[in-house]
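Hi R.,

Quick one: here's the MFS transporter sequence you asked about.
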Amino acid sequence: MTAIDAGSPDAAQDPAPVRGWLAILAVTLGIFALMTSELLPVGLLTPIGTALDLTEGTTALMVTVPGLVAAVAAPLVTVATTRIDRRLVLALLIGIVGAANLASALATSFAVVLLARFLIGISVGGFWSLAGGIALRLVPERHVARATAVVFGGVETASVLGVPAGTLTGDLAGWRTAFAAVGVLGLISLACMVIVMPKVAPQRTLTFADLPRVLRTGRAVRAGIAMTFLAITGHFTAYTFLRPILHDDGVADGMISVLLLVFGVAGVCGNFLAGALVATRLRQTVCGIGLLLAAAMAAVATVGHDVPSAAAILVVWGLAYGAVPVTFQTWMLNAAPAATEAASSLYVSTFNLSIALGAFAGGLAVDAAGPVSVLWIGGALAVLVAPLVTVAGRRQP
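And here's the predicted structure, written out as tokens:
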């Protein structure tokens, strides 16, 4: 999953469980802060655009820029830091996130905001790629699976709870306060990592040649990349503009925050539900994600948006999206069990590239054809996930 592995000669053979779990929680807090930073503009698109006098499509560059940068940074940071203590690298990356969010909160021009978002993209790509396999080095072997799930829970929780919480903070105290709060959270995570995490020296070396090599290992790997691209691009094409869509239909700003929180709670439930299913029903879970995402987007486009109906639709959407990270990560690791470092790096790159492309394509569609258009585009992409499961072969990877 990263350029680290169990059994480093300078690591204890049986890490101390208490300190190891504290380190796992520090990493989880860091990845929560990182992913919340990347996605925070989704819930604050309208107030940021109004304050900086930007169109909604232009404001969406705050999502596009870090996504594109993270897609490139995931393999670059992993390979470039392959011989450096992982604790040092992770601490540096999360420190950058804290500083960049504070800079966004104080920025008086959109150029400064985009520069801060560029730095966040570097941190997101590098941190996520390295953090995925850190549990191998921090906790005893019998706890590795559970600890890895906790770390990825930080990604999921940020996606489905961090954005609603940030949106609510922005509605109550202004969008700058929301960015400042995430910046402080990043600095708190930095302090926690410095205090509780032991040195984690890398053992294996990952090279750029490993990345294309893993794509040639089988159809399941290529299908996993394609499914991730379709599901995440489709989701963010529509979800990035969910706030203006609901606002145009007469839903009050305060209720939009509540609805995003409903989406988040449903997403956490979807994460746990998928975690229980992927071991034995991986293919079916992937198909269900694509179909539910498409159905939810179509429903938002066609059903009247009173608060109860919008809440019901967002529960379905949240369940489906909440299942994405653990399901697709499991698919990739099962498809390339002998090359988990390279497979994880490609997955992180595809995930973040898809966030960027979804926000960018949605911005063009919104400015050209109105907000509802992104729902049909996103749904059309998501529904293509199910056929790709068949392309991957009848045998579960």
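The chain has 19 helices and no strands.

Cheers,
M.
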